[in-house]
Amino acid sequence: MKSMYDRIYDAVLQIPCGRVATYGQVATLAGNGRAARVVGNALHVNPAPGVIPCHRVVNAQGRLAPHFAFGGVDEQQRLLEAEGVEVVDGYVDLKKYQMR
Questions:
Q1: What share of the chain is helix, strand, coil (3-state, %, to 5)?
Q2: For 17-42, how does the pLDDT look when each residue is reduced to its tens digit (9 = 90+)?
Q3: Which residue range forms the structural domain that includes residue 68?
Q4: What's the mean pLDDT in 81-90?
């Protein structure tokens, strides 16, 4: 049986390029909708940041991670913008970019 972290990484791999998902959304995809904080912890220790696109995960309001583990908030914004996601004042418009 897969660990919760492995299920989280599998869920993050489902987020398409140019889209974002919230921590809660990833938790639900991983099988425990109440584990949004666990998602944050798992992404902070992402074993393959170039493969598992943790930069595509934002909070419930669309805010970028204030302490993005792989280069800081500027790097998360840079990665998202490179995929065509518009970031304004540290936020992504979830109505426009959230994975459905």
A1: 40, 10, 45
A2: 999 999 999 999 999 999 999 999 99
A3: 4-97
A4: 97
Q: Whole-prediction pTM value?
A: 0.95
Residue 98 has pLDDT above 80, yes or no: yes
Q: Which amino acid is at 54?
A: C
d(CA 41, CA 57) in angstroms, rounded, equals 12
Active site residues: 54
What's the structural domain count of the chain?
A: 1
Alpha carbon 16 to its chain centroid, in Å, reads 11
Name which residue leads in pLDDT, 68 or 57: 57
Residue type, 96: K
Amino acid at position 80, single letter = L
Q: How many Å from the N-terminal Cα to the C-terminal Cα in the chain?
A: 27
Residue keyed to tokens 């930069």? 55
Cα distance between residue 38 and residue 27, in whole Å: 8
| DSSP 8-class letter at 57 | E
The domain that holds 11 is classified in CATH as 1.10.10.10
